[in-house]
Amino acid sequence: MDEALRLLERLSTSYAPPGGEDAVAGEIMAFLGGSIDSFDFDAMGNLIARVGGDGPRVMLAAHMDEVAMMVSWIDDEGFLSFTPVGGLDPRVLLGQRVVVHTEKGLLEGCIGAKPPHVTTQEEAKKAPEIRELHIDIGASSREEAEAAGVKMGSYVTFPAHFARLLGTRVMGKAFDDRAGCVVEALVARAAAEGGLGVELYAVFTVQEEVGLRGATTAVNSVNPRYAIVLEGTVAADTPGVPEASRVTRLGRGAAVRIMDSSMITNRGFYATLVKAAERAGVSYQPQIVAGSATDAGRIHLHGRGVATGVVGVPCRYLHSPHLILDLRDLEAAYRLTLEALKLISEQT
Ligand SMILES: [Zn+2]
Description:
Layout: H1 2-12, H2 22-32, E1 38-41, E2 47-51, E3 57-63, E4 68-74, E5 80-85, H3 90-93, E6 97-102, E7 105-112, H4 121-125, E8 134-136, H5 142-147, E9 155-157, E10 162-164, E11 169-172, H6 175-194, E12 199-205, H7 213-222, E13 226-234, E14 254-260, H8 267-280, E15 284-289, H9 296-299, E16 307-316, E17 323-326, H10 327-347
Parallel strand pairs: 3-12, 3-13, 13-16, 14-15
Antiparallel strand pairs: 1-2, 2-12, 4-5, 4-9, 6-7, 6-9, 7-8, 10-11, 11-17, 14-16, 16-17
Helix pairs in contact: 1-6, 6-10, 8-10
The chain binds zinc ion.
C-alpha cells in the first residue's frame, strides 16, 4: 500500500477546482506514463486512458475535481466576495484558511465574517450565509489585490495538507474523489500489465461537483457496456450519529452502492460486485445514501443503458478541508474492482 499512499498524497495535495483540473490530470498521466496505450482529452477536459484488450468494453470513472470557491467581487478595501463551486456548507467555511489561485501564484488568506462582538443575539443564533462571508488576503485596497493577480473568476480552494494519523488512517483534502482516482489509476496500470480480459477505458472526469457534467460527455466517447464509478464516499460513523444513519464506517471495507438519488444499481451488476468482493476476500459495505449522486447517475442512462456500479472508499467530513479515510478500505476497493473486471470478462 506504500505506492497507493504516495499517489494519494500526490493527488490530494494537487489542486483541481471544477473546470480547472489540469494539475491532477498531469499527475495521473505522469503516474500511468508508458503503461497506457493512449491518452485523450475531450473538449470538457475529461482524461480518457485506453488500455487495450479483448473482451467487453468497461468504463471506469473517478472525478478529478474538488469542491472549491470562485472570487465574485473585490471591494474597495481589498476584501473578496466569493461563490461556491460545488456543495459547500457555510458552517464549515467560517474561519478556514484558503488559497487564492492567480496567474502569479497562490495567495494565502482566510474566510472571515463579522466578529461575534458586533453581532446581534439574533444573528449569533444562526449559521452565516455564504454571502455574509468574505476572504481576507491582507490587501488594503482593490488595487493591491488586483496587483497581486486576483480577479473575478479566480479560483479559491482549501490549502493542501496530508498527514498520517494513528493506525491506518490518513487525513488530507479532496479525498473526494482523489481516493477514487488512486484506485482507478492502480487498476488501470494492473490491467495494462496483466490483461484482464476487458477493453478498459479509465476515465478521469471533470466538473462532477457541479452536477456530473464531465461524465455526461465522457460516456459518449467511450460507449461502454459496463461501468464502475470509483468514489470517495460518505462515512458518518461519528459521535451523535445513530447506527442506522452511519451510511458507511471506516475500516469496514469498500462501499458498494445499492441506491442513491441518481441511480438504482442494476441488480445483476450489484451481484457481480458482491461476488467480486467475496472472491477477492475483501470486506464490503452495502450502501444506500438518499442525498447523494455520482457520475454513475449519468453514465447508466447512456444509449440503451449501461450496467453501472459504484465502489466507494468511505471518507469522513466530505466537502470539508480535512477528510479522513482508512487505507485498508482503499486497498479493498482496489482489489474488489480488479476482481470485478475479471468476473465481467468471464461472464461475458
Ligand atoms: Zn465525489
